[in-house]
Amino acid sequence: MSEVTPPEVAPLEVTLLERPDDIRIVRILSPEGATPYRASFVGAYQTIFSMPPYNERFTPEEAKGVLHRSLHTPEHLTLLAIKGKRQVVGFGFAVPVMARRDITRELSGLIPLRHSFYLAELGVLESARGTGLGSMLVRQRLENIDTDRYTHVVLRTSATKTTSYNMYLRLGFDDMGVYMEVPSLRQDGRETTDRRLFLSRVLGAPDLID
């Protein structure tokens, strides 16, 4: 009787980087791969965006929806920064620009939409800030975009030009001078908009400061 070879099981996640402070950056490859981290991600997402400059209020279901949408977008890059076994201390998502109609409306004619990627979410808990983790999450996404298909990458950040804005400039992004008003529910219960600024970079371009 011939021996039956069991089918290969697709990996649920891939570790991209391990740091000496017990934080590792993992790429989640499927919805099942996010299961061990989902509850911690929800808490981290709510906490990070409740703080300035955004002061946004998200329900647990809304935070879960952000993760769900990323994981169900073709060619997604869903990165989590994990401390210890399951504690999410940061995240960085990216999807093709064509998957985001709100972004294509704003940038039509300014970039090659079908050949551009969008860095959709970036967040780091306060306890892990100042360690270079945010820059690492940006770089890891840039390094994992298929440069045979995509030539440009874009993102939006607060128009108040916080430390994140300066970080992106150091990583080789250019200020596009294009703004977008984003409506959100604030911590005080008001529904208001805040202005976001678009930045862009050619894939493969070097960081301005390493």
Molecular structure report:
The chain is globular, with a radius of gyration of 18 Å. The protein has helices at 31-34, 38-49, 60-71, 101-107, 133-144, 163-170; strands at 13-18, 23-28, 77-83, 87-96, 116-124, 152-158, 174-185, 191-202. It contains six helices and eight strands, in the order E-E-H-H-H-E-E-H-E-H-E-H-E-E. The chain has a single domain (13-202), classed as Gcn5-related N-acetyltransferase (GNAT) (Aminopeptidase), CATH 3.40.630.30. By secondary structure, it is an alpha+beta fold.
Order of helix and strand elements from N to C terminus: EEHHHEEHEHEHEE
Portion of residues within helices: 25-40%
User: Taking all residues together, what is the mean pLDDT?
Assistant: 93
Largest sheet: 8 strands, mixed
Provide the domain count.
Answer: 1
* CA-based shape: globular
Low-confidence spans: none
SSE class: alpha+beta
- Rounded to the nearest angstrom, the radius of gyration is 18 Å
Strand content: 25-35%
Number of helices, where a helix is a run of at least 4 consecutive DSSP H or I residues:
6
Per CATH, the architecture is 3-Layer(aba) Sandwich
From the N-terminal CA to the C-terminal CA, the straight-line distance is 59 Å
CATH superfamily: Gcn5-related N-acetyltransferase (GNAT)
